[in-house]
Specification:
With about 80 residues, the chain is mainly alpha-helical. The chain has one domain. α1 runs antiparallel to α2. The protein starts with a helix and ends with a helix.
Length: about 80
Amino acid sequence: MSVNKEHTEKRKRGPLRSTLRVIAVIGLTILAIVLYFICDNMFSGYPQYHTELLSWIAMILISLGGGIIWIVDERRHRDDD
């Protein structure tokens, strides 16, 4: 009887988890596009807003994000073995 209860709880969590994952992917994609535009100096030429500093911060965030993704992916592949 407990197996059926666990199965129905998993089915209830499935759509919520999928929705949250889709929202996270869309949000991270938008963030990546904004960071790319900042690094490409699309928003440059405004010294009062310190756009040169924003470019450096965006490049650091992109590098950290790539490093984190690489570490998570390597752990996932190691778990598959």
